[in-house]
Design a protein that fits this description.
single chain; about 0% strand
């Protein structure tokens, strides 16, 4: 099984939570463009952004980064 990138994992978790990119952006207080760019591998998010996204999804930072669930 291929290991997911952080962006791919965020997208998977977002879809599992039935959230749009816009909804995740709002919940994580991150811009929609940032969410889009992370999920599409255009940028490597800084730890503070990852923490905000993890909190918005209700998971740990480790779950977000490593893809453990």
């Amino acid at each position: 099984m291929k290991k997911l990138t952080v962006g791919e994992n965020i997208k998977r978790l977002r879809l599992d939570a039935r959230l749009s990119q816009a909804a995740l952006a709002k919940l994580s207080e991150t811009s929609l463009l940032t969410i889009f760019r992370i999920e599409n591998g255009k940028v490597n998010p800084i730890p503070a952004t990852l923490k905000c996204i993890a909190d918005a999804l209700g998971i740990s930072l480790d779950e977000l980064v490593k893809g453990d669930k």
